[in-house]
């Protein structure tokens, strides 16, 4: 749980700051991809509410936003599998970024493809600017068995990277400045030491250090590794988040008003389970040496 930034920073006197409880929204959702646009936090998710309950077979993604991390607006589905003429099923873990006056969503489908959708709004109006997958197993070399779980990262020099991969095969490829095409070969992400990568890779940069975090299995922990380059090689550093009470672990991180946060999912509502997950949010903090402190999963 996190405190309302507005309450914590603006409200004087003895009143306790408003407290956000986990889960942050009352709808089954998973694979939170958290971003700050125009001083507002947006969380894009896999929509577990609309799946069958027996598999991750939803056809839609969902987006929420908040200015205080306590009160969340449900913006509905920004995009669905049907928006890609070439996709058939499985709206899985999304990623997002903002550039060139556009908002971009990187969206895996079919367990084999990643598409990109673009809009001038963060919450709707997305369309497919390519008409083809950005990444596709069978078409592209070195996608791995399961090119899913995209995580887009734009470095300070403007170079963008798309990290992706499931089935224990972490991958990365450079994006062109148009953000809808790749350049160069798909590369393997190499991590020395520690628990191996399973899926759900995520990249963030802090104080010049590249932090690659990922799930270690099913169930898995969220572990992390660091490097001095976005392409690695990475050195294992430890565990950020212990296993959750569902068989997948998936997270993202963002800095908002000077505080880092981690969003993830777990079973946190009545009727929940492996296919009916809920989004939770916690503070993320660092030690003086740049290592990340282990996160406590809170409810209240
Ligand atoms: O939501 C479907 C899949 O479950 C994601 O792609 C994985 O990361 C896991 O969270």
Automatic annotation (TrEMBL):
Keywords associated with the record: Carbohydrate metabolism, Glycosidase, Hydrolase, Polysaccharide degradation, Signal, Xylan degradation
Signal peptide: 1-20
Domain of life of the source: Bacteria
Family: Belongs to the glycosyl hydrolase 43 family.
UniProt name for this protein: AbfB domain-containing protein
Organism: Nonomuraea harbinensis
Complete-protein stretch covered: 9 to 308 of 452
């Amino acid at each position: 749980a996190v405190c309302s930034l507005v309450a914590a920073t603006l409200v004087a006197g003895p009143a306790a700051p408003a407290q956000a409880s986990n889960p942050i929204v009352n709808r089954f959702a998973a694979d939170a991809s958290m971003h700050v646009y125009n001083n507002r936090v947006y969380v894009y998710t896999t929509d577990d509410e609309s799946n069958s309950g027996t598999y991750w077979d939803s056809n839609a993604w969902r987006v929420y936003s908040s200015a205080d991390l306590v009160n969340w607006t449900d913006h509905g589905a920004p995009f669905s599998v049907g928006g890609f003429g070439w996709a058939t099923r499985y709206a899985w873990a999304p990623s997002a970024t903002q550039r060139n006056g556009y908002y971009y969503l990187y969206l895996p489908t079919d367990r084999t493809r990643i598409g990109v959708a673009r809009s001038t709004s963060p919450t709707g109006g997305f369309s497919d600017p390519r008409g083809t997958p950005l990444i596709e197993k069978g078409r592209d070399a070195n996608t791995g068995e399961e090119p899913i779980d995209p995580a887009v990262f734009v470095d300070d020099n403007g170079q963008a990277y798309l990290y992706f991969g499931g089935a224990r095969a972490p991958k990365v490829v450079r994006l062109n400045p148009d953000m809808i095409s790749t350049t160069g070969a798909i590369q393997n992400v190499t991590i020395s030491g520690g628990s191996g990568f399973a899926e759900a890779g995520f990249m963030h940069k802090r104080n010049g250090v590249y932090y690659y975090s990922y799930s270690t299995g099913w169930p898995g922990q969220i572990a992390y590794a660091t490097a001095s380059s976005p392409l690695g090689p990475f050195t294992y550093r430890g565990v950020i988040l212990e296993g959750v009470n569902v068989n997948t672990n998936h997270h993202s991180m963002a800095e908002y008003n000077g505080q880092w946060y981690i969003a993830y999912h777990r079973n946190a509502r009545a009727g929940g389970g492996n296919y009916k997950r809920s989004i939770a949010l916690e503070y993320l903090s660092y030690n003086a040496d740049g290592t990340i402190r282990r996160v406590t999963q809170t409810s209240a």
